[in-house]
Specification:
Structural class of chain B: mainly alpha
Number of domains of chain A: 2
CATH architecture of the largest domain in chain A: 3-Layer(aba) Sandwich
Strand order of the largest sheet of chain B: 1-2
Distance between the termini of chain A: 41 Å
Helix content of chain B: 40-55%
Radius of gyration of chain B: 26 Å
Shape of chain A: globular
Order of helices and strands of chain A: HEHEEHEEHEHHHHHEHHEEEEEH
Largest sheet of chain A: 8 strands, mixed
Oligomer: heterodimer
Structural class of chain A: alpha/beta
Chain lengths: 448, 569
Amino acid sequence: MSRWTRRNMLRGMARGAAVAVSLPLLDLFLDGHGEALANGAPIPTRFGTWFWGCGVNTARWFPSTLGKGYDLKPELAPIAPWRDKVSVFSNFNCILDGKPNLVHWSGVMATLTGSAPLKGGVTGGSAEAPTLDCLIADHIGRGTRFRSLELACTGQSGVSYSMRAGSTVNPSEVDPIQLYRRLFGPEFADPNKAGFTPDPAIMVRESVLSSVKDDRDTLMRSLGSADRQRVDQYFTSVRQVEEQLGQMLQKPAPAEACTIPKAPGQMTLGPTWDVATRTHDVMAQLLVMALACNQTRVFSMALSNAGSNLRKAGEPVSFHELTHEEPVDEKLGYQPKATFFIERSMETFATMLKHLDGVREGASTLLDHSLILATSESNFAKIHSVDNLPILVAGSAGGRWKPGQHISGNGDPSSRVGLTIQQVLGLPVTEWGSGAMQTSKPISEVVS
Amino acid sequence: MDRRLGKAITRLALPCCMAIAAIALAGVDFVKPTSAAAAQDTGGSHGPALRRLNEGQYLRSIEQVFGHGIRVPGRFAPPLREQGLLAIGEAHVSVSPSGLEQYELRAREIAEQALALPGVRPNCANQGNRFDRDCAEQFLGKYGRLLYRRSLDAAELAGVVAVSQRAAATSGDFGKGLQAGLSRLLVSPYFIFRLERAAAAPDAMGRAVLDDTSLATRISFLLWDAPPDEELLAAAERGDLREDAKLAAQVDRMMASPRFEQGVRSFFFDMFGFDQFAGLVKDQAIFPKFNSELARDAQEQTLRTLVNLLVTEKGDYRDIFSTRKTFMNRGLAALYKVPAPSAGVEGWAPYTFPDDSPRAGILSLAGFLMLDPTHEGKSSPTIRGKAVRELLLCQPVPAPPPNVNFSIVQDDSNPLLKTARQRLIAHQESPACAGCHALTDPIGLSLENYDGVGAFRSHEHDAAIDATGTFDGKPYVGLLGLSQRLRESADPPACLVQRLFEYGSGRAVGAGDNAWLETAITRFETDGFRLPALMRRIATSTALRSLGPALPEPGTQQANLGMLYRRTK
């Protein structure tokens, strides 16, 4: 070792034997809330959204008790091991205030964009404002190779709840093999490898994109305002990919928790339950390593579309159809076949938590350094209700978010959750949303 | 011809008590379009369009510009259907960052492959690392013009050449420099989007119109679903498209090309919603004959049937509802329970359904019957009825109101409600639902003799299927009865004319287009409902190049074109 710096010394120890080392951490090496990796690099905070379709059964999902140590009802039981890391939000609403209730669309867009949408329905629609993952990626995602990743588990790339304003979805990666190639293919630079030489081919690519921006001014002049917005989005994308290339010209910061995963094998894709959850599991593991290896800090994952086409193999009707067509069992008080999917959706979310919590970073885990917003588009899909939307937030943003509480919004707009997340992640916003969804009231109970 | 244009032309939501019920329920006016939609419906100025190339158009552009054999990698963004057409949605989408990543990847790989093709790589590229400005300008100017579908101006060309020069310097290889320049052209918004430009001067009538190369692009995507070739581009640059006879000559040349068949296929792919075939899944436990190959064959069969009837035989459009002539392969023969063809091109052979067969017209083919991505284990009369209304008749069906209670509906284990008809009638007893289901279900229920993938059946759950229906107040029995009613109706041809114009111009028709549309529908009738004649009329119309509402052609000009057309026939 050439120099006896603190960083090199700690790195040496971490790579060496399992020796307990106790050293006072110097503030210099800590992020604002006191955690840094043994190599001295501050641990980044991550953000993700996780979407499931067709809501919940209120009485079987929402806890009865408020605050910490809330009770777990049957449909939330799968998250039991992580209850102290997961916050539940109840009685936060999509407030339509005269706007139409666009079935299987209004609820999710209200929570994710802070605005009830004007156009859409069960097959999707448009967004009045960018979704949270885009806003947050613009803030915390610039320093990584991918500003964000979009993923879906039913094989359909149009299934995505990540949108800039307008009609263009950020299409999802649906095939684990392609996701792997994009993340860990030839362009991946191992953050823990010693040497680094910038690739001249990347410089050429950067200069190509830089030159494309020359087209902007003449193009903008010839267009009406709606088209100008679309061209603007195109050039924003150009700039983002250019920045990504710029990242690839720099030696990546070391990432202790990063281990390069094995390439996944060929698998069937589709909306049957077993296939979709298997896809989810493989993609979740790749995603977790993409986060741990600093390839991205933001993601948006959809288990299915909002009018969920998830289906048990051999059954003629899908989850969405069941929510509308299956009678409520009088003895049970709920729709048993539809509820199967609600319970399994929460089990699937729990596997995501397990993967995130399984990665050690410093003294805690990747989950602790994240905020994961999980939500659905309806409360009770049978009647498309958008009051009391089911909302979970997992993780504690590296100590900036007080996890593990059940908080009631008393009928406030669900945009309060999004505003709070943005503020905790350091975005300079004091109010968010539009119309009746507009709010300037963060949820103070979770801010530490 | 009994003309009820109101429905087809003004695109008002159907008068429907359900929409009223929805308004009452939610306290909002559902029929009122949003401000953006209202702006499009004013029939005023539409401005030049900006349309993103779809996957097929991108692939065909590459093939047309560089020749066969280039592998195009990467995912394309999912298409967007707006106001009934993907062609309209293409004018509303942009490119996301992950989408741009894919365009950038494609640009690099296409440029690398293209520079390796002997027909593309210029001789002057093989001179090591010396940067040859003339060579670069000539090469990038040539391919830039084909990719942008217009010539590059001096500043644009200088920018692209500069990229080449920098890349040649970085890599020490002039060929690599040209490759980077080509890559730069391929990732440009001028290639990825079809950007239309207004002509500097208005036309003889004082109306704002597209410039020549923009018009050439509209025409070639309408007729070929591909960019203009060298000949059309040269004609546009000479100003030929402003002269009726020369314009007609170009259109006739293009319609005589084998590429015209692709243009017709692309149009019907869009009009009939065939994008829904992508990823279409049916449950194999319930429909053992279904697999992704059968889905692909079903789509192919309908397209072949349409091309044969409308292009090869120059048949009457209305016969799409009655023709028994189609094409068959092994998989579909098993589904339809007819003898498999012994040979044929790529497994396909012409086939005519016998007169006593339950199959005639495109509604009876699997390409229509299985095309429902929302029901994987059964047929949905509502979705089928909606498809007939929206795709074939241009009659939008309002979306269901949000707060419907479906609790009595379609519990298909209910021993008292064995067939879809019985279950849907129970549903229709709810007044909030009755209005719209009255539009869709009588049509869909009469198709219930064909299951979720299109196989014929007479019973569901041991109960005989009642396939009676009414269309526009006239009773009929079964799919063939419905097809006969549609064959007699004035609405399908009017819908076709509307869709073709919308497809070509990339915008939904509005009230300002009514007079033109009415004239065009009458002329379609005069032409014996021949699709090629209709496409020719639209391709040569002033409406297609207009940046305002489509106005009827000045009489003399149209008469001349009509004569020209009869002469060429």
